[in-house]
Every structure is written in C-alpha cells, then in structure tokens.
Amino acid sequence: MTPSIQRWLPVLTACWLLLGVTLVSAADLKRVEVAKDVYALIGPTGPRTAENDALNCNLGFIVTQQGVVLIDSGASRAGATRIEDAVRAVTEAPIRWVINTGSQDHRWLGNGYFAEQGAEIIALRRTVETQADLGGPHLRRLGAVLGDRLEGTEPVTASKPLPGDQASLALGGAQIELLYLGNAHFPGDALVWLPTQRILFTGDLVYLDRLLGVLPASRVREWQAAFHRMEAMKPEVLVPGHGGVGDLAKAQRDTGDYLDWLVAEVGAAQADWEPLDEVVARLAEAPQFSRLENFDALHKSNINRAYLDFERGAD
C-alpha cells in the first residue's frame, strides 16, 4: 500500500460508514428545473447501492446554445449512463463539458464515459490532486457494492487542471465560476456559481434535510469559514451536495447553524481540555438538529471527529 493510500484510508472508511446509515433510498434521480435551462439531479440521501449506481448525491446540468454543461459525473460508467438518460429527457444536445466539484467517487468516476464521447473534463488542480490519490481505493470499495455494474469504470481526471482557487468559465454562452472557499467536508471540494441567475451548486459544503457528516479529513473551522464566505455571496437558489433544493435561510438552519454549534460547543470543550467521552455524553442531545435525517447515526461521531480536529489544530 502506497503512503498516499495509507493517508486516505481512514477518510475512505469513514465516508462509507456515513453513506450507509440511512435506510431510505431511491433508484432514480429526481430532476428539478431550478431556472430556465438549469437543472438539479437529486439523488437519494441513503447509502450507495447497486440499484442507485452509488448516485446518493446531487448533480446538475446546464443547457447552453452549444451543448450541455454537466456538474459532476457519478460514481461509475453505469451511473454516467443513468445521468445521461436524465439529461436526454430534457435535450438531445451533446454533453460537451463536465465540471467536477469534488473528489468523492460519485462526483467524478463517471468522467471516463463522458470523455470518450468528447466531453472536456474541468476541475481545479487541488481537486484533481485529491482524485489522483483516491481513484484506486474508490474503485476497490465500490466493487463490493456495484459488482458488475462497476465494469468499464476508469479514474479519469481533468487533463488540464485549473490553477488557483477560482476560475471564470464561458461555456456555450453560459457564465460559470468554479470556486474553492476552503477545505471543508473533503479536501479540494469546490462550488459552481452561476452569477447571472445567482444559483449555487454547493457540492458538499452544504447539506439540506439531513445532518452533515464530519470525516477524519474534514476541517470544521475551515468548513464554518467557507460556509460564511458562501453566505456572503448571497445566492438565491442552492443545490446542495445532499438533500433538496433550497435557499440560504434553509442552508443556515441545516448546515451553518450546526457548524457554528460544533465550533462553539465542541471547540470550547476541547480548549478547556474536557475529556472527549464526557463531551460526547454531554452534547449527545441537540434537539435543535434532531429533525435532520441521520442525526441519531451521525451526531455523536461528528462531535468526536470535530473534537479531534480541533485538537490537531491546537497542537
């Protein structure tokens, strides 16, 4: 096992545990038109399954005068064909560009399918670097879930990664910005911003309807800061990484308030050297967030991981 894979192993394990906690799942992507020619594809909030081709996340697409811009490509070749079918229900225009917002498998492992058809893969350099580390481990873990439906899937990344923390793109007449606001849920995660329509595809910066998951690689204070940077942009419509389409007020209730709570409560406890087991026990009930899906399964582990993250930062 290479050092890079060893470094990511705890993160990958945690990702898969998080994604297996909700019992409800759906096989189909729900298409939501959020503005003229702008669509969200809403996946189930439950676990990866062969039935949903591991598409338990949200994606999106923009129909332009010159073709389709796809936002994230799914976890496999089979999943990519399902995404293509969802696009084809709206337009026969070719998918010419695929933007990756992140490095978790369901954000990018469908790239190869679309690249074979001539699509340009677009991602920030920091996102591509994380993808390069994780492609092999992702495929090995997906094999246990998808079986034969993983056949033909290859970890293809953007051939010309974009440097820096932001990029302004003019694709088919659509003005699109790709933004990195800081490490949050996962290193290298980015957002897709449509400034004219004030629509934001948040990637895993924002979770709606379900509790966010803190991973070993998550940086909670950076996540909080990135959320508030996003807030300052004043988007009118948000397509979250998971959950239904919403607005900034809902994002604050479902994600921002919880991040603020973790920093205020768990951060203060860690700064006071309160023992971790006592912190978890004392903060285990947080009724203001218990309405969110996955609360019972994730909340205590979120406290634990946030505490360890703050501890690392204090070293």
UniProtKB/TrEMBL annotation:
The keyword DNA-binding does not apply. The keyword Signal does not apply. CDD domains: metallo-hydrolase-like_MBL-fold. Gene3D superfamilies: Ribonuclease Z/Hydroxyacylglutathione hydrolase-like (3.60.15.10). GO terms for molecular function: hydrolase activity. Belongs to the metallo-beta-lactamase superfamily. Class-B beta-lactamase family. Keywords: Hydrolase. Residues 56-242 form the Metallo-beta-lactamase domain. InterPro entries: Metallo-B-lactamas (IPR001279), NDM-1-like (IPR050855), RibonucZ/Hydroxyglut_hydro (IPR036866). One of its GO terms (biological process) is antibiotic catabolic process. This is MBL fold metallo-hydrolase.
